[in-house]
């Protein structure tokens, strides 16, 4: 939770940055209906996506969703079967990797084991034919940037995992690429180090003013570092938006379920009351109310209402009769997380609903315990109506 | 620590005796002062001195070393290419046939390999000499090099090459700057193995060598048919020493590459 708060503060600093809302802005990277097949399987299936200069963009999805293939298309390790990849307006689909102004940080770090840390970092600049003095100066600068001064002479195997990760970052930044690609850069780090590194990465990206594209399966990581997130499923981009948009207005059950915790109510759309949709829940027959938003569904259609646990209210006493969306049940499980507690409630129809409550005061005894009868409710604005 | 009983030590001694007493005898008798092989007449290095004067044996030794060095070098280049094709080119058409043909010489009886090469050389009227033996040795040592290098390439992390290309290194240069230095221990191991095999070989060499290209094993074998002389013992001792050195170097370099690989893997895991 602390992460989210800090992220919001950082987000505040950068609030002005939103080139994707400006129709006149030219994207730095453009995927134009790109498809890549491996045998019969389309790893990337007709993806169109714009990424803007200085943006920190996260490709998020489970393993096998095509996010790594999309990144490798950008690096040049794969060529598209259909569609184009554009960088700065130029079609780079056929340009081999060593001629692209794009650098990548590999998941395995891929440090050259037979070279020192300094030689690893110097490799890219040397390949570009920089003069010796400039290469040396750049290596020093990069070592400083990733806080590895004095370790230039070490071999990769003499470093810790976290240090190796920094060397890989320094090496991929050494040539000041137009775009830095990061393939699961923190997968091998422990949680504490990962969180520190995430903030450091954001700081570096902001300082250098570079465009970063990160591939990750960790939604918390994506939400922490990225300006925008592209959620992928089975080779397709399901939703692209800022972390807040993705979290608060998921466009499908897949996104709602993948990002964060959610309770889904399946029901039939009965009609509208102003801009509030009326949904009859299938299992219980209860009439639920949620903001209709953008969802366009005809009465009678199957729809879902997604409710985040922190937006549901839980109470040990019956709620006033005019409260909307009141449900009841018995506490099935309690997860005490310190800063908040998550209650899993079993409803009379056998379905479960999750609600969380911040532990704002230091209560020794919890007012809600296992098997207690509880009442749940959520405001119509808290529920997201989904049609798929 | 586990303690070993007298029985274990006895078994171990018997095993080693079975393997190494014959070799030890050759070494001991090379220092025998007597010309008679069966009678010990005191320590002497005179047969080594005599060996230095025996131009026939020295020529043969030189030929053997040349053949071994040249054939091991050619076999290492070709065997490495074979390994790269087998590991890197995926499932191309005829892969099974290709790999079977490459590895067939490993199981082929040497007599047959030698005979068939002899027939070939005669058929194409290739005068037998240094190059015929060398080529013959390349044909059978190449497979060993291919196996050693292949096993190293299988565990090679391809993302290292991708990283190099990503940083602006063209594909061919990537091979020489990244791939080759990393797999070099396996290449050295393969070269040493090929060198040793070539130095040892009697059967194929006797089919494929000609006048002026008598290798050391052939020279020793033909000399022994006229009776074992202490000079031959001395020559054999030197040969044993050379082969032992090569084998030790081979295992050290494979061990080193293995240790490095494990270290790299541990590195990736932490």
Automatic annotation (TrEMBL), chain A:
For this UniProt record, give its keywords in alphabetical order, as a comma-separated list.
ATP-binding, Cell inner membrane, Cell membrane, Membrane, Nucleotide-binding, Translocase, Transport
ATP-binding keyword on record: yes
A Gene Ontology biological process noted in the UniProt record is: putrescine transport
Question: Could you say which EC number(s) this protein's record lists?
Answer: 7.6.2.11
Which residues are in the ABC transporter domain? Answer: 29-259
Q: Which reaction does it catalyse?
A: ATP + H2O + polyamine-[polyamine-binding protein]Side 1 = ADP + phosphate + polyamineSide 2 + [polyamine-binding protein]Side 1
Q: Which domain of life is it from?
A: Bacteria
> Per its UniProt entry, what is the enzyme's top EC class, as one word?
translocase
Q: Which GO terms describe its cellular component?
A: ATP-binding cassette (ABC) transporter complex
Q: Per UniProt, what is one Pfam family of this protein?
A: TOBE_2
Function of the molecule? Part of the ABC transporter complex PotABCD involved in spermidine/putrescine import. Responsible for energy coupling to the transport system.
Q: What is known about its subunit structure?
A: The complex is composed of two ATP-binding proteins (PotA), two transmembrane proteins (PotB and PotC) and a solute-binding protein (PotD).
PANTHER family associated with the record:
PUTRESCINE TRANSPORT ATP-BINDING PROTEIN POTG, SPERMIDINE/PUTRESCINE IMPORT ATP-BINDING PROTEIN POTA
Q: What is this protein called?
A: Spermidine/putrescine import ATP-binding protein PotA
Q: What is the lineage of its organism?
A: Bacteria, Pseudomonadati, Pseudomonadota, Alphaproteobacteria, Hyphomicrobiales
Gene, per the UniProt record: potA
TrEMBL record, chain B:
State the Gene Ontology BP annotations. Answer: transmembrane transport
Q: Which taxonomic lineage is given here?
A: Bacteria, Pseudomonadati, Pseudomonadota, Alphaproteobacteria, Hyphomicrobiales
> Residue limits of the ABC transmembrane type-1 domain?
61-251
Q: Which UniProt keywords apply?
A: Cell membrane, Membrane, Transmembrane, Transmembrane helix, Transport
Q: Does the keyword Transcription apply?
A: no
Tell me where on the tree of life, at the top rank, the source sits. Answer: Bacteria
Could you tell me which species this protein originates from? Blastochloris sulfoviridis
The protein, known as? ABC transporter permease subunit
GO terms for CC?
plasma membrane
Q: Where are the transmembrane segments?
A: 6-29, 65-89, 101-124, 130-154, 175-197, 232-253
């Amino acid at each position: 939770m602390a992460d989210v708060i800090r992220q919001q503060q950082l987000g505040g600093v950068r609030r002005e940055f939103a080139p994707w809302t400006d129709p006149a802005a030219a994207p730095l990277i453009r995927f134009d209906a790109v498809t890549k097949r491996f045998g019969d399987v389309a790893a990337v299936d007709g993806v169109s996506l714009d990424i803007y200069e200085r943006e920190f963009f996260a490709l998020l999805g489970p393993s096998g969703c095509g996010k790594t293939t999309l990144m490798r298309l950008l690096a040049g390790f794969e060529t598209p079967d259909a569609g184009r990849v554009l960088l700065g307006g130029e079609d780079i689909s056929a340009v081999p990797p060593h001629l692209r102004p794009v650098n990548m940080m590999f998941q395995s770090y891929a440090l050259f084991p037979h070279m020192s840390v300094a030689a690893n970092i110097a490799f890219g600049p040397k390949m570009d034919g920089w003069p010796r003095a400039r290469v040396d100066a750049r290596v020093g600068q990069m070592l400083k940037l990733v806080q590895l001064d004095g370790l230039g002479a070490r071999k990769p195997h003499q470093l810790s995992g976290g240090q190796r990760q920094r060397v890989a970052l320094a090496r991929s930044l050494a040539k000041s690429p137009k775009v830095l690609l990061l393939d699961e850069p923190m997968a091998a780090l422990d949680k504490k180090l990962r969180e520190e590194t995430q903030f450091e990465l954001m700081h570096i990206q902001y300082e250098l003013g570079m465009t970063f594209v990160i591939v990750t399966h960790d939604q918390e990581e994506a939400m922490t570092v990225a300006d925008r997130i592209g959620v992928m499923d089975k080779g397709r981009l399901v939703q692209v938006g800022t972390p807040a948009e993705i979290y608060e207005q998921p466009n499908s059950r897949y996104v709602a379920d993948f990002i964060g915790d959610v309770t889904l109510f399946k029901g039939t759309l009965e009609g509208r009351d102003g801009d509030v949709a009326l949904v009859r829940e299938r299992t219980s027959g209860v009439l639920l109310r949620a903001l209709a938003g953008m969802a366009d569904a005809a009465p009678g259609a199957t729809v879902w209402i997604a409710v985040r646990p922190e937006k549901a209210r839980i109470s040990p006493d019956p709620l006033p009769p005019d409260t909307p969306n009141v449900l009841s049940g018995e506490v099935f499980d309690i997860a005490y997380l310190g800063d908040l507690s998550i209650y899993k409630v079993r409803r009379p129809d056998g379905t479960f609903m999750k609600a969380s409550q911040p532990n704002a005061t230091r209560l020794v005894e919890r007012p809600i315990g296992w098997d207690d009868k509880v009442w749940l409710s959520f405001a119509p604005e808290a529920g997201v109506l989904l049609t798929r | 620590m586990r303690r070993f009983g007298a029985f274990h030590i006895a078994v171990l001694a018997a095993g080693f005796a079975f393997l190494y007493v014959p070799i030890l005898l050759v070494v001991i008798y090379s220092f025998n002062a007597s010309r008679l092989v069966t009678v010990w007449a005191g320590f002497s290095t005179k047969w080594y001195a005599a060996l230095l004067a025996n131009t026939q044996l020295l020529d043969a030794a030189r030929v053997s070393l040349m053949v071994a060095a040249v054939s091991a070098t050619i076999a290492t280049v070709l065997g490495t290419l074979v390994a790269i094709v087998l590991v890197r080119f995926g499932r191309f058409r005829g892969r099974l046939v290709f790999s079977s043909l490459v590895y067939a010489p490993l199981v082929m009886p040497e007599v047959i390999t030698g005979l068939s090469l002899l027939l070939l050389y005669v058929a194409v009227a290739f005068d037998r000499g240094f190059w015929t033996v060398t080529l013959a040795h390349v044909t059978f040592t190449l497979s060993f090099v291919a196996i050693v290098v292949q096993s190293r390439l299988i565990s090679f992390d391809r993302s290292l090459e991708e990283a190099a290309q990503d940083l602006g290194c063209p594909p061919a240069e990537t091979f020489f700057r990244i791939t080759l230095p990393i797999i070099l221990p396996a290449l050295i191991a393969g070269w040493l193995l090929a060198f040793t095999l070539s130095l040892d070989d009697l059967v194929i060499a006797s089919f494929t060598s000609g006048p002026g290209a008598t290798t050391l094993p052939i020279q020793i074998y033909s000399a022994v048919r006229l009776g074992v002389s202490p000079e031959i013992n001395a020559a054999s001792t030197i040969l044993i020493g050379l082969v032992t050195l090569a084998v030790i170097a081979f295992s050290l370099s494979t061990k080193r590459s293995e240790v490095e690989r494990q270290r790299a893997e541990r590195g990736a895991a932490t």
